């Protein structure tokens, strides 16, 4: 009997070697960390979705993730309150901002990556230094300047403000992608007769497209959810000018916070971001991977 037990234990030990057991432990710990990370980021979203499906009274009486008596009443109230108008305003401001940033930063990043000129490094450091300044610190001087120019209470002024504030980050990010592209492509294009602008448009734009997609996604998310600048510039103009982040604030009035309506508006506002990310996910992952390998 003892001989059989020793034989079985020896056979099991031969099949499960220490390197294999160590690899199983590492894999288990890795999957556990993945599960915790996914739960950490996914739970708040599920909780907001759960709140949006409750009645106002159930918000304070139940901690169940799945409501026992789900209701779409908060979505009906949110749709009746003008959220479609705020969604359109947000989409309009965000689309113009992202397009403007890409139009400005693509040739600028190309120039900083390829041209050698006096003060280039100092100018890059100055751009980086501007990025270090929090927009909250300069919001009042910016409001004063925009009011002098007559650009407050208008989406055009807000778009110009967003473009100016988000160019430094986008410029540095896109310049890094241009640095990963071999300069031999430029030389080959110049030999074929292309000037600088044609080289950028017909030769370099395609390989740098993942970087442009990363810039677009980051700026789309930042602009879509921005509140402080939008509230400062647009709030005197009335609710018709509101963006989505300002519209959600409407449900937090002086008498009470309508949590179910806030949650429903947040869910409606998340959908376009997810759709935009899914549409550019292929470029986003490719851009991050190439940046990690070549950067």
In short:
Its main location: membrane. It is found in: Cell membrane. This protein has helices spanning 2-15, 18-52, 73-80, 83-114, 120-131, 139-148, 155-179, 184-191, 196-204, 209-225, 228-234, 244-250, 259-294.
Describe this structure in words.
The protein is an all-alpha fold. The protein has one domain (82-292): MetI-like (MetI-like fold). It has helices at 2-15, 18-52, 73-80, 83-114, 120-131, 139-148, 155-179, 184-191, 196-204, 209-225, 228-234, 244-250, 259-294. Helix 3 (73-80) crosses helix 13 (259-294), helix 7 runs antiparallel to helix 11 (228-234) and helix 8 crosses helix 9 (196-204). The longest helix is centred in the last third of the chain and has 36 residues, at 259-294. The radius of gyration is 26 Å and the shape is flat. The mean pLDDT is 84.
Helicity level, as a percent range?
over 70%
Order of SSEs:
HHHHHHHHHHHHH
Work out the helix count.
13
Average pLDDT: 84
How many extended strands? 0
Silhouette? flat
CATH topology-level fold name = MetI-like fold
